[in-house]
Amino acid sequence: MECTGAQILLESMKREGVDVLFGYPGGAVIDIYDELPRHPELRHVLVRHEQGAVHAADGYARASGKTGVCLVTSGPGATNTVTGIATAYSDSIPLVIFTGQVPTQLIGNDAFQEVDIVGITRPCTKHNFLVKDINKLALTIRQAFYLARSGRPGPVLVDLPKDVMQKRAEFVWPEDIYMRSYNPTYKPNLNQLRRSVEELAKAERPVILAGGGVIMSNAAEALTGLARKLSIPVTCTLMGLGGFPATDPLWLGMVGMHGTYAANLAINNCDVLMCVGARFDDRVTGRLAAFAPKARIVHIDIDPTSIRKNVEVQVPVVGDCRMALEGISEICDAKLENKDWAGEHAAWLAAVAEWKSSKPLCYQENGNIKPQAVIEALYDITGGDAIIATEVGQHQMWVAQFYSFTKPRTLLTSGGLGTMGYGFPASVGAQFAFPDKTVIAVAGDGSLQMNIQELATVVSNKLPIKVVILNNRYLGMVRQWQELFYNNNYSSTNMEAQPDFVKLAEAYGAEGYRIEKAEDMRAVLEQALASPNPAFIDVVVEREENVYPIVPVGAALDEMLLV
Ligand SMILES: Cc1ncc(C[n+]2csc(CCOP(=O)(O)OP(=O)(O)O)c2C)c(N)n1
Ligand SMILES: [Mg+2]
User: Which protein residue has the closest C-alpha to ligand 1 atom 5?
Assistant: First the structure.
């Protein structure tokens, strides 16, 4: 069957199971857009900015576990995707980004809307392709999807010259996929699993540290089962939240710069640390030389380059987190059936319980609306059964601390890159993945304004997304750092000149609510969340509240500042 390049592209997407793509048209992709209505199985969502398209695809991927897809034009359309691509790359999110390109004979000519997007995105994609030959189009798309979702997932960009979309060729779908020199290891080495069990069995003060890899590999259940069986306390990185139920007695809270007292002390005092799908980022470790000083470390990761990158480990395990955890669990069942794990860890668990109860997360009530109390109310009202997307800043950390995540894929947040403007468009992708779920974007007044135009996407698609703005009229996290660690000259973080978010919501055709009094907070939140319509809920919170605990840059985890 002879098809145009545009037809081959869209047919290939269907073979890959794509049901929704987020995009924005332009000259270089007109052939694709003109063909798109003939493929009703592919739902196209018109965003209002290409950055929004990538974050929406990313939110769709994080919430669903599937690969997110977007389609944009050449030149500025392509460059507008870069922040979204780098965001997904930092957090290992599977995306395929299709960019239009000028016709092949014009490449290198400084043609209208020409940029070298393959060059620009080389360092922030898992891989990228420029398709010059229509006969390689289907294979390239197959490889792009395979690369995006396999091994350590990541964004893959496919650049599509306009003439390649117009040419005709036979459509041949490559069923089998094989890429020389790309063979991710899923099944962990049995010896390494046995060594891991030996370390755990000898441990008197073990801790499990779980990261985003647990979410990505659908290992939450395996992790929870193993931790309970072995009576080992668990902490998570920001990316790992939801990988272990925050309601479990073994839960320590989040680790790191804004981690709990209990989690950070447990890391500091443990004798065996089993790290699962986390990469020892500086926000997690604090001063590297002082990280987990008493521990022997087991590190499970699908990406061999992330092992021993930052910290020395005694037992490296390369493989899929879920398979590794299940393997460890099986060895424990076979070899250590009668071991009294809970009894042997009793003293350690008592020490941990004492840290938890002596210095829990807290904040001082004073009659104003405390941002932490808003997050607690959201948890209470939703019963934890919602998808929460966040922007970046103090509000993000309060979500991480005060919303007790119990299920994987319920927190969508930019961990690695820390991208303001991520959360609201990410919530759009999540709502497309789960039309019936409650999706809430918790935003800062600064971050929301970075992709606020996506409210048009939300309203035009009748998505019932609720945006809860923790409005402190500051770039709060920067203000906090200037207050605590610099010279207090934070006038440039003042965001008092801001739009009326209620009127703005209404101007777009959404609902707007404002909460100014602590006594109204709960009732108005309930009312707004019960609405079937999209809404901004502008919550006027305590202006100069700080996030605690905080581990200053360069300090060890046990040198945190408390409230
Ligand atoms: C795109 C981008 N620009 C700048 C920053 C640096 N930054 C981190 S947090 C923050 C303040 C965010 O303010 P807001 O969204 O109001 O959240 P708050 O901290 O007040 O809760 C800034 C400017 C960033 N993370 N991302
Ligand atoms: Mg703010």
Answer: 420
